[in-house]
């Protein structure tokens, strides 16, 4: 069975690439953050996921660490005006946030699928 042969790393990478954690072929999302009910390639049900706010918290942590570190480094070394700070960090923050949301949510859904959480059935981990 393909589910038990898929490793945790494969499932997470497939989810981060926004593809089905089971087969890696079908699309995980039907819109920006809306997970498809089933995989179009293998028929795996995906509607069981409960990612909720976890992807947003993870993205906030990643983006916050990157941007705050860069802001502090820039302030210490160059001390630019507030306008320069706003011009630099607002686009970077938005780009990182929107760029990471889908891959992080995909990885969370894949993790839940692999561990059999929230109605995905038995864990797909080799005994």
Largest sheet: none
> What series of H and E elements makes up the topology?
HHHH
Kindly estimate the percentage of residues that lie in beta strands according to DSSP.
under 5%
Low-confidence segments, given as residue ranges, are none
The secondary-structure class comes to: mainly alpha
- Domain count: the total is 1
Distance between the termini: 14 Å
Q: What is the radius of gyration computed over CA atoms, rounded to a whole number of angstroms? A: 18 Å
Q: Helical percent range?
A: 55-70%
What is the strand tally?
Answer: 0
Number of helices, where a helix is a run of at least 4 consecutive DSSP H or I residues: 4
**Which whole number gives the mean pLDDT?**
92
Shape: elongated
Provide a compact summary of the structure.
57% of the residues lie in helices and 0% in strands.
Summarize the topology.
Elements: H1 2-5, H2 8-16, H3 54-78, H4 82-115
Helix pairs in contact: 2-4, 3-4
What does this structure look like?
This protein is mainly alpha-helical and 127 residues long. 57% of the residues lie in helices and 0% in strands. It has one domain (2-115). Helix 3 (54-78) packs antiparallel against helix 4.
Pick out its properties:
mainly alpha, 4 helices
